[in-house]
Amino acid sequence: MAKKRAQQQIPAGPHSLALRLDVMGITAYMTKPAIEELISQLKRISEAAPEELYDVHIAMHFGGWSGEGDYIPPSFGHHDGLGPVVKKLRNENNQLKAGMSQQEIEIGITPDEAYRPFDITIMHVTPEVVQKVTAENNELDF
After folding, report:
1. Residue 72 · residue 63 · CB < 8 Å
2. How many CB atoms lie within 10 A of CB 48?
3. Is a pLDDT exceeding 70 seen at residue 131?
4. How many Cβ atoms are within 10 Å of 62's Cβ, its own excluded?
5. Helix (H, G, I), strand (E, B) or coil at 102
6. Sequence ranges of the domains in the chain
7. What residues form DSSP beta bridges with 25?
8. What is the pLDDT at residue 35?
9. pLDDT at 126
10. CA nearest to 121, candidates 53, 67, 71, 22
11. pLDDT tens, position by position, 68-103
12. Kind and range of the H or E element at 112?
């Protein structure tokens, strides 16, 4: 019976990935199906030409939908007092504010509440882009 239960794994989705941020960095806790799905996505982007700028957005990709049609993001947590810092940065981000609907603004939803909480994006690029990213801290134009 225990062996049968061990074989029944939750498929990759919102309950297959949890992201945790602390002062040491970001840790992604993933189930085996999530790791296998990440491998397939990394294989997909690595097989494309780096000039195509293919990427995978981890939290977005491993989200899912409820029966009511609501988006369910993977869990994102933060420790060591980083929550207020992340919230402040997200709420002051004009790009996030610009994407909000008038209705969300009118009912008092903040950018932090309107968007999935956090994402990690993995992008396939050329060595020159890696060098440019290393040298610059600002947004990059490819």
Report:
1. yes
2. 12
3. yes
4. 27
5. helix
6. 8-79+117-135
7. 22
8. 94
9. 92
10. 53
11. 888 788 888 887 777 777 777 777 777 777 777 777
12. helix 111-114
